[in-house]
Write a structure and sequence with these properties.
alpha+beta; four-stranded antiparallel beta sheet; about 35% helix; six-stranded antiparallel barrel; 7 helices; disordered C terminus; rod-shaped; single chain
């Protein structure tokens, strides 16, 4: 009997010890967990923010309402209140060391003079206004050629050929007689002109040179041949006459071109025509004269398009005092047109062209970058004119913007996914689940305490029974 009571006391003490130990351990674990949450909250409170949720470091779309492990086994990191509001949607924040490592360069937007440059190919040709055809107004035979090959240079007044014409011989005879008897022949013809004046006028109209008329008056001898002189200084580009040839009025004997000025024909595409004006300056370079730039001007814009090439022909004029520019040469032509002296422009390398949109990466400072859409105007060699989207003083990225734009697009997509996921979690009662979790802890503790009281009551009953016995 005594041994049974002693055994019951031992069991009672053992039960009390186990229950007290479990209660102590459970209370200690709960206290540590609460202490950890308090430390986190206090750290957030020191920064003036509280934790909104926890997310996986390698998968931003995985979020949780409490700390723990990600599917990859990594510790979840906290996202504080207001952290998402520190940047605008689509904005990315990059560590300064990373910015330097990827070679980010920036440019401050400012107003610059914009000049539209049009480049094309030109073909040198003769100045049509400086091309002359030499022909005779009488018929006869070519007695002698002084200019007998194509390409020969001639000066104005040089003798080209001598021609024998019976008509010129008879007209000379008539003039000599009138000149000898000019004092006796006083009869006037219609208009009051004398026979001498009419004879001289006929020689002049047949292009008999002045020096031969004076020679005729001085010597009184009839000359068999008369001279044909060059009307201009230039180059013989075509010769159609040989010695002994019989020529008639209107026949083209020589074609002479003055090459002191030349024309250059350039083909301009339809979309470039608004930047071409008569009188604007033109520059020309040739492969045969490397490093030299010839200056000219636009003299005429043809009022029709070329159907096959869909280009508009433009005529340029260039001085050619040394005859370096030769017809049928090909040249590179540059036409510059001033668009604006003060225009907001962005470097071409700073613009991301995506077909229907034009994007630049705007630097917000402190490692923050945001893509913005801009409306572009005229394109020059170095800049795009900005009609809308940027202001003077803005700073844009000119290198590594593809990486930043990709990161921004990823950030924007992730933000939208997070918003959708957070909305779903809020709808399902994320906070309520947290309360249930805490309630589960307290309920479990209360249940364990009730069980311990019940055991104590049983043990008390056991003692009562033992005392009764």
């Amino acid at each position: 009997m005594w041994q049974g009571r002693l055994k019951g006391v031992v069991l009672l003490l053992a039960g009390i010890s186990v229950g007290a130990g479990m209660a102590f351990l459970f209370a200690g674990y709960t206290g540590l967990f609460k202490e950890k949450e308090v430390r986190v909250d206090r750290g957030a409170e020191k920064e003036g923010r509280r934790i909104l949720y926890w997310r996986a470091p390698m998968d931003p779309t995985y979020i949780s309402d409490k700390p723990g492990k990600s599917p990859m086994g990594m510790d979840l990191i906290p996202v504080y209140e207001g952290e998402e509001d520190l940047v605008e949607p689509g904005t990315v924040k990059i560590d300064p060391v990373t910015v330097q490592n990827i070679g980010v360069r920036t440019y401050e937007i400012k107003k610059v003079p914009l000049v539209k440059t049009v480049r094309t190919i030109g073909r040198i040709d003769y100045d049509e206004k400086r091309v002359y055809h030499v022909h005779t107004k009488i018929e006869g035979w070519v007695e002698k050629l002084y200019v007998d090959f194509t390409g020969q240079k001639v000066d104005k007044g040089d003798i080209l050929l001598e021609i024998y014409s019976p008509e010129l011989v008879s007209t000379q005879e008539e003039y000599i007689l009138a000149y000898r008897y000019r004092d006796t022949l006083e009869a006037d013809i219609s208009g009051g002109e004398s026979i001498l004046e009419l004879s001289r006028r006929r020689l002049e109209l047949w292009d008999v040179p002045e020096h031969q008329i004076r020679e005729l008056e001085r010597t009184g001898r009839i000359m068999k041949t008369l001279h044909i002189h060059s009307p201009i200084k230039g180059i013989v580009i075509k010769k159609s006459v040989v010695e002994g040839m019989f020529v008639k009025p209107g026949m083209n004997l020589y074609t002479i071109a003055d090459l002191s000025k030349v024309w250059v024909y350039a083909d301009i595409y339809e979309y470039e025509m608004p930047w071409i004006k008569v009188g604007q300056e033109a520059e020309m370079t040739l492969a045969s004269y490397p490093g030299r730039v010839f200056k000219g001007r636009v003299s005429f814009i043809y009022p029709f398009m070329e159907a096959k090439t869909r280009t508009n022909k433009v005529r340029l004029e260039f001085d050619n005092p040394n005859l370096e520019l030769k017809p049928d040469m090909y040249a590179n032509v540059v036409l510059k047109s001033e668009i604006s002296r003060q225009a907001i422009a962005v470097p071409k390398e700073a613009v991301l062209l995506s077909g229907d949109r034009s994007i630049v990466i705007l630097s917000r400072g402190e490692g923050k970058f945001k893509p913005v859409e801009v409306t572009l105007g005229v394109e020059t060699d170095e800049y795009y004119q900005v009609l809308d989207g940027l202001e003077e003083g803005d700073v844009v990225v000119t290198s590594a913007h593809f990486l930043i734009d990709s990161e921004s697009r990823l950030k924007e997509a992730i933000t939208k996914m997070l918003e959708a996921k957070k909305g779903t979690m809020d709808h399902e009662g994320m906070n309520h689940e947290g309360m249930d979790h805490e309630g589960m802890d307290h309920e479990g503790m209360d249940h364990d305490m009730d069980m311990m009281d019940h055991d104590m009551m049983d043990h008390g009953g056991m003692d009562h029974d033992m005392d009764h016995h």
